[in-house]
Specification:
heterodimer, A: mainly alpha, Ferritin, B: mainly alpha, two-stranded antiparallel ribbon, 11 helices, 2 strands, 2% strand
């Protein structure tokens, strides 16, 4: 049986991935490799924050305790965030940033497409807006991964290294715990094995064009969905939440 | 992008973060328009950027001041973009077409930027005592540098006469500065902030504000490279450029490979 609490947790998971990824992409502002990419990354960060805001607002409504999007973003602690570890990984070089987004995009687009048919009307509506953006995001990250893989020797090595480093975080995107199973049963969320099939197809197609090697599915890092993150998440939150914490109750 | 990008990760609400992301993106877009306008004069974007990175080309001195608190993001929008618009509105009618056409688009977005900055300040000014103090402090620090953005007084402006002759500039530095002050003083009053100039007073006869003396020694010092952030701004831009070299090379190499395959 689906409880409101499970739906709340599921909505937060969707939101936190976007909120944290947006934070990371925003860190590039003013430091991108070329002006067009500076614009592209802030544009993506803006899309992600837009979707995150819709989801956080909805999560607050589901919870029914009067928490706003800002209360959920700025006043939760490290262990209460339920994003996957993939999105909190540091930016690294541009290959790591692109690769992190590519792996997320290859999951996010089919997920958003599937969510169009969600039994939850609000989540379906939010996905309706996100799906168009997600198509662009995947095109952007795929194009760059192909340029890197099939560019210079250096770019190829950097892209392969990034892929090897980040692959361990892809398993958690498709983990189906009790919360997720309840969502599937209620018709809210898709079976993630279907999303995984779409992810695999995208990854194989893009990596083949990029002449990059798909890493073997070895050990997969998990824990993000249960609020067990890497040390870096605390620093993200310390930075992101500082004004709300320093001026409690203020309006901005 | 650097002074404002500095606060994206610390914006105090998701709405503010989204607005700031959109705004900085606009600014980068304005950079693209103007690099394109400069290209019509025969200088490639690479060359223009190289001149910036080597310190040969100048950029607006205002960006050599730090954004120390969140209120600075309000002050930058309200005062810095507000001062820039005065120039940019005039430049919509400049005699050089590519520049004028770029400015028409820029002005539309800048007017939104100015209003969002003012709105940040208005919210802070009616917030907690700590927020109001933050807003006033930002106004204190940004007021005089904003006035300096209009450049030296007409009597001491070495390029003004020629720019006016070619109708590149249509109004003088002092005229624009006066318009800016007249408007901004009233805006400060509305939100209950105080302009940091004890000599500021309304002149009934001229229907303009009179103001105190600009510290031109500070202006010249910042232009000469000794402002609070001159060095770190250029270090940051050079680092971004150098770190991104392999990215640009990869893009060119891939494009060449694709073209070769298509030809084959």
């Amino acid at each position: 049986m689906m409880s409101n609490e499970a739906l709340f947790t599921y909505t937060l998971r969707l939101a936190d991935d976007l909120l944290i990824l947006s934070h990371r992409l925003g860190e590039w502002c003013g430091h991108g490799p070329v002006l067009e990419e500076d614009i592209a990354l802030t544009n993506r960060a803006l899309d992600h924050i837009g979707e995150a805001r819709n989801l956080l607002t909805y999560a607050g409504e589901l919870e029914g305790k009067g928490r706003t999007e800002d209360a959920l973003a700025y006043l939760r602690n490290e262990r209460q965030f339920v994003n996957t570890k993939l999105v909190e990984q540091p930016n690294g070089d541009y290959a790591h940033t692109i690769c992190r987004s590519f792996l997320y995009d290859a999951y996010h687009l089919p997920l958003a497409e599937a969510m169009l048919k969600s039994s939850d009307a609000q989540l379906a509506a939010i996905a309706g807006k996100a799906v168009k953006e997600a198509q662009y995001h995947l095109r952007h990250s795929s194009d760059w991964l192909i340029r890197f893989g099939d560019g210079t020797e250096e770019s190829h090595q950097r892209a392969q290294a990034a892929l090897n480093d980040l692959w361990t975080f892809t398993g958690d995107l498709f983990a189906q715990d009790e919360v997720h199973q309840a969502m599937v049963k209620a018709g809210v969320a898709p079976d993630l094995s279907k999303i995984k099939a779409a992810f695999d197809a995208t990854v194989d197609k893009v990596l083949s064009e990029a002449t990059l090697k798909r890493p073997a599915d070895g050990f997969m890092a998990s824990g993000g969905r249960q609020g067990k993150h890497g040390e870096q998440l605390g620093f993200i939150l310390a930075e992101m939440q500082y004004l709300q914490r320093a001026y409690p109750g203020a309006t901005w | 992008m650097l002074p404002e990008g500095n606060w994206i990760s610390r914006a105090p609400s998701l709405k503010r973060k989204a607005i700031l992301l959109a705004k900085v993106q606009d600014e980068a877009g304005h950079g693209l328009y103007l690099y394109s306008a400069a290209e019509t004069l025969g200088t490639s974007r690479e060359q223009t950027i190289d001149d910036l990175l080597s310190g040969k080309a100048k950029y607006s001195s205002i960006f050599n001041y730090p954004t120390l608190t969140w209120a600075d993001i309000g002050a930058v929008g309200w005062l810095v973009d507000g001062a820039a618009i005065m120039n940019q509105v005039m430049l919509c009618r400049t005699s050089y077409g590519p520049y004028a056409r770029a400015m028409v688009r820029i002005c539309k977005e800048e007017s939104f930027h100015q209003r969002q900055g003012y709105e940040i300040m208005a919210v802070l000014a009616k917030g907690t005592p700590g927020q109001k103090e933050m807003a006033q402090d930002a106004l204190n620090r940004w007021w005089w540098p904003s006035l300096m953005m209009f450049g030296p007084t007409d009597a001491n402006s070495p390029h003004s006469a020629e720019s006016m002759k070619w109708k590149i500039k249509r109004q003088s530095n002092d005229e624009l500065r006066q318009t800016f002050i007249d408007r901004t003083v009233q805006q400060a009053e509305v939100i209950g902030l105080t302009i940091p100039d004890p000599d500021l007073k309304w002149n009934e006869a001229t229907q303009h504000y009179e103001w105190g003396t600009i510290d031109w020694a500070e202006f010249n010092n910042v232009v000469a490279g000794n402002g609070p952030c001159n060095k770190e701004r250029l270090v940051a831009r050079n680092k971004a450029h150098n770190d991104g070299a392999w990215v640009r090379e990869a893009a060119m190499a891939h494009a060449a490979k694709k073209a070769e395959r298509k030809a084959a």
